[in-house]
Design brief:
globular, two-stranded antiparallel ribbon, Aminopeptidase, 10 strands, about 180 residues
């Protein structure tokens, strides 16, 4: 298993098929919580959903387009962080993340995102990294601001998220 040590508490582990049942168990228990800001949890109704996600992620990793990692706190899988849409011509990428509810507020996402930023800037030689967060998702926006991301723009057109309109802030970090 390929891992990146973040600190004494956290590791990032490149996704692998053995994570599928763990992801499914987490989402089965925390579907409502995760659905507040994420579109996909209502669709995650089986381990197969996560096997497909992992397989696609590993193919895109091999193609240099994405790097998706489980966030391991202690010995427990607690969330996910990924560097997505890696673009050679633009030298840019996007970071996305989610975390189990009971692990919120411990700085886990901030530390995981900081590690993924280093991967983007150092391993992939990116010049720009973006993070998109719902305007009302103050926790996610605080992660961006804590790590020094600057608000780049607010999407003019809201998107639909489980029956409600959500406007997104786009944050930017330059190398």
């Amino acid at each position: 298993m390929f891992t990146l040590k973040v600190d004494e508490e956290i590791e990032l582990a490149l996704v692998e098929p053995s994570f599928a049942p763990i992801y499914f168990e987490i989402v089965s228990r925390e579907r409502e919580y995760l659905s507040e800001w994420l579109l996909w949890p209502p669709l995650a109704k089986s381990e197969e959903f996560f096997l497909n996600f992992i397989t696609k992620s590993l193919h895109e990793y091999a193609d240099g387009k994405t790097m998706v990692c489980a966030i391991i706190h202690g010995n427990e899988l607690v969330g996910n962080v990924g560097l997505h849409n890696i673009s050679d011509p633009e030298k840019s990428g996007e970071i996305g993340y989610w975390l189990r509810e009971r692990f919120q507020g411990k700085g886990i996402v901030s530390r995981a995102v900081k590690q993924m930023m280093m991967v983007g800037f150092e391993l992939y030689s990116l010049n720009t990294i973006f993070i998109e967060a719902a305007m009302e998702n103050t926790s996610s926006r605080a992660v961006c601001e804590r790590l020094g991301f600057k608000l780049d723009k607010v999407n003019a057109k809201p998107s639909e998220l489980h029956g409600r309109e959500v406007t997104h802030a786009i944050y930017r970090m330059e190398r």
